[in-house]
Amino acid sequence: MPITELLEKNAQMYGDEVSLVEINPKAMEHAKVTWREYSLIETNPMEAGRTEITWKEFDKRSNRFANLLLSRGIKKGDKVAILLMNCLEWLPIYFGILKAGAIAVPLNYRYTADEIKYCLELAEADVLV
Fold first, then answer.
1. How many Å apart are CA 64 and CA 80, to the nearest integer?
2. Does the structure show a pLDDT above 80 at 48?
3. Of 92, 102, 85, 86, residue with least CA distance to 65
4. Closest by alpha carbon to 97, among 1, 33, 7, 26?
5. Residue 41 has pLDDT above 50, yes or no
6. What average pLDDT does the chain have?
7. Mean pLDDT, range 39-64, rounded to an integer
8. Range 3-128 has CATH code 3.40.50.2300
9. Residue 1: its pLDDT value, please?
10. Separation of alpha carbons 118 and 116, rounded Å
11. Domain segments of the chain: what residues?
């Protein structure tokens, strides 16, 4: 079973349950708490430093990005490079690339401009996100 089908299955079975959580420590610095106290398990919508999405939303965002790629002429086998910091959007973009039939080429956001250029050329990437 392709991993994209697992996402779709989870969206159907656990649609309204939380799938991804992003904690933004910079937004929570004022609280002076450790990482263990960032409410990693219990949902607290009042916390400004916490963002989360459900399985249904995760699948929806992946589909939206896949459709964007397809509308821009990306086809099966094209290479789509991802140059993003660690963020909540990374996985829906990654899954969207796979759903479009393209090949995901993750890049390290810490690369210098020359390293990014080298990797893009080496991978023969068609698109950079």
1. 15
2. no
3. 92
4. 7
5. no
6. 86
7. 76
8. no
9. 79
10. 5
11. 3-128
